[in-house]
Specification:
The chain has helices at about 20-30, 30-40, 55-65, 70-80, 95-100, 105-115, 120, 130-150, 155-175, 195-200, 205-225, 240-255, 265-275, 280-290, 295-305, 310-325, 330-335, 340-350, 365-380, 385-390, 400-410, 415-425, 430-445, and strands at about 85, 90-95, 155, 225-230, 235. By secondary structure, the protein is mainly alpha-helical. The strands form two sheets. It has a three-stranded antiparallel β-sheet with strand order 3-5-4. A two-stranded antiparallel sheet has the order 1-2.
Length: about 450
C-alpha cells in the first residue's frame, strides 16, 4: 500500500445556499412537472410522446387545473428530469419521483438533468441551420463560466462578445484545410434572402445570428431556473451558480487524474485501474467520467462489459457505480442480457439502498452460479492460482459436487477453461480429478 495525497473535498463558492435550500428551489422549479408525473404514473395509458396524446392532454389539464401548454411543458420536463419512464404506452414513475420528497440529492440530480437539457426545453428559433444551433450550445458553457466567475449581473453585450469568440474558435478548430496564399474560399451557394446561410455570410449578419442565438440560450437557461434576465443583463440563480461550479469542479478533477487515464478508452482505463485499491480506482473513474458526457461514458462502459474479458466486465460495473443515478436507465435496460444480468441486478440493488453484503440475495441460484464462473474466469485470466482455489469458498453451493453439477448446467461460455484452471491449481488430487472430469463432460457434452 502506498500513501497517496487526496484532493480535499471542494467547497462551493461563498454565499451558496445549503443543499437543502438548493433542493427546495429545485422542487419549486419542477413543481408542475412533479404533479404531471404523479398524474401520468397513476393514469392508465396517458400517452407516450411529446406532446401528450390529445385525449390525455385534455384529461391532465382538467385534473390538474393547468392549461394544455403548461401540461405539455411539464410533461417534457418530467421526462427530461427522470421523473417518469415510458414503457410502451404506459408512463411509470421514475426512481427520482419515488424519492422526491425525502431525497435532496435525487431532487438536485433531477434538476441538473433538466439544466443539461435546456436546449431541448426551449425550442431553437425557426429557420436557423442545425450546425449554428449546435455551435451555440457548445459555446454556452463559456458563457455560464463568465456568469459564475462574475458572481453577479453580466451585460448582454459582454456575453455576446464571449459567445462570438467561442463560436469563432469552434469554427477554426473544425477547419481542416486552412486557406493558403493564392487560395480563396468557395462561394456560398445561392439562396433566398433571409435564409440561415445568408445570415451567416458576412460579419454583420454573423453577429446578428449570434445575438439571436444568445437570446435563445439565455431564455432557455432562464426557463429551467438557471438564471434570471434583467434589462440588458443576466444573473445566475443560486441553483445555476451551484450547477456551474459543480461542472467546473468536475473539469478540475479530470485535469488531476492521478494515473493519467483520462484520454484512454474505457477498456484501457479499466485495465489501468485493475491493480489500484478501491479508493484510488474510484478517483480514476471520476476523472475519466468527468472528461466525457454521461451518455457516451455509460455506453462505452457497457460495450466493454459485453466483451469477453470478465475482469473488465466487473470493473465496468464498478465504474458505473461511480456514475450513479444517470446510469440507472441503461443498467436496467441490460437486465435482459444474460452475461450482464447478474452485475446489473447487484448494481440496482446497491443503488436502491441495499447493503452490498446483502445484495447477493437478489440473484437466483443460476445467476449466482453464472457470476461465480464469470468471476473465476477473471481470476484465471488475471489473478493468481491461490485466488482461484480460494474462490471455491464463495460459491453458494455447500459442496464441490453440487457446485460442479450446477456449473455444468449454467452454460457459461468459459466453464471449461475455468474448470481446467481450477483443477490445475487445486492441491487436493481427488478434488482436482473431479473438476477435470467435470470439465471433460462439459467439453464433450456428456452428463
Amino acid at each position: 500500500m502506498t500513501n497517496r495525497r487526496t484532493r480535499p473535498a471542494p467547497r462551493p463558492p461563498e454565499g451558496t445556499p445549503p443543499r437543502a435550500e438548493l433542493a427546495r428551489q429545485a422542487r419549486a422549479v419542477l413543481a408542475d412537472a412533479v404533479r404531471i408525473a404523479h398524474w401520468a404514473a397513476g393514469t392508465p395509458g396517458p400517452g407516450t410522446a411529446t406532446p401528450l396524446a390529445a385525449h390525455a392532454l385534455e384529461r391532465a389539464a382538467t385534473a390538474l387545473e393547468l392549461s394544455p401548454a403548461q401540461v405539455r411543458a411539464g410533461w417534457d420536463r418530467a421526462r427530461l428530469a427522470g421523473l417518469v419512464e415510458l414503457h410502451g404506452d404506459t408512463a411509470r414513475p421514475g426512481w427520482r419521483l419515488r424519492a422526491w420528497d425525502r431525497d435532496d440529492s435525487a431532487v438536485l440530480r433531477g434538476w441538473v438533468a433538466l439544466f443539461d437539457a435546456w436546449s431541448l426545453v426551449h425550442a431553437a428559433p425557426a429557420g436557423i441551420e442545425a450546425g449554428a444551433v449546435a455551435e451555440a450550445v457548445e459555446a454556452v458553457p463559456q458563457v455560464l463560466s463568465l456568469l459564475q466567475l462574475s458572481a453577479g449581473p453580466v451585460t448582454v453585450p459582454a456575453l455576446l462578445d464571449l459567445l462570438g469568440q467561442r463560436v469563432a474558435e469552434l469554427q477554426e478548430e473544425r477547419c481542416e484545410v486552412p486557406l493558403g496564399p493564392g487560395r480563396t474560399a468557395p462561394a456560398a451557394p445561392a439562396g433566398p434572402a433571409g435564409t440561415a446561410a445568408d445570415r451567416a455570410a458576412g460579419p454583420a449578419r454573423s453577429a446578428d445570428l449570434n445575438a439571436l442565438l444568445l437570446d435563445w440560450a439565455l431564455e432557455g437557461l432562464a426557463a429551467v431556473g438557471a438564471l434570471t434576465l434583467g434589462q440588458g443583463h443576466a444573473t445566475l440563480t443560486p441553483l445555476g451558480n451551484w450547477a456551474v461550479w459543480v461542472k467546473l469542479e468536475q473539469i478540475c478533477v479530470a485535469a488531476q487524474s492521478p494515473a493519467g487515464n483520462i484520454e484512454q478508452s474505457a477498456a484501457d482505463m479499466l485495465l489501468g485501474c485493475a491493480r489500484l485499491t478501491p479508493g484510488p480506482a474510484r478517483d480514476e473513474y471520476r476523472a475519466w467520467l468527468a472528461a466525457r458526457t454521461v451518455g457516451s461514458a455509460v455506453a462505452e462502459l457497457l460495450a466493454v462489459a459485453r466483451g469477453e474479458d470478465a475482469l473488465l466486465r466487473g470493473l465496468a460495473f464498478e465504474a458505473l457505480r461511480v456514475v450513479g443515478a444517470p446510469a440507472e436507465p441503461e443498467v436496467r435496460a441490460v437486465l435482459a442480457e444474460p452475461s450482464l444480468r447478474p452485475y446489473a441486478l447487484l448494481w440496482l440493488a446497491e443503488y436502491e439502498g441495499n447493503d452490498p453484503d446483502d445484495a447477493q440475495d437478489v440473484l437466483s441460484r443460476e445467476e449466482s452460479t453464472w457470476l461465480w464462473v464469470d468471476t473465476a474466469a477473471a481470476v484465471a485470466d488475471h489473478g493468481e492460482t491461490g485466488l482461484l482455489v480460494r474462490h471455491l469458498d464463495s460459491a453458494v453451493q455447500g459442496t464441490v459436487p453440487a457446485l460442479l453439477d450446477e456449473v455444468r448446467a449454467v452454460g457459461h461460455p468459459r466453464t471449461v477453461q475455468v474448470l481446467v484452471a481450477l483443477a490445475a491449481a487445486h492441491p487436493d488430487p481427488a478434488l482436482a480429478k473431479a473438476v477435470r472430469r467435470a470439465a471433460f463432460q462439459v467439453h464433450t457434452g456428456g452428463a
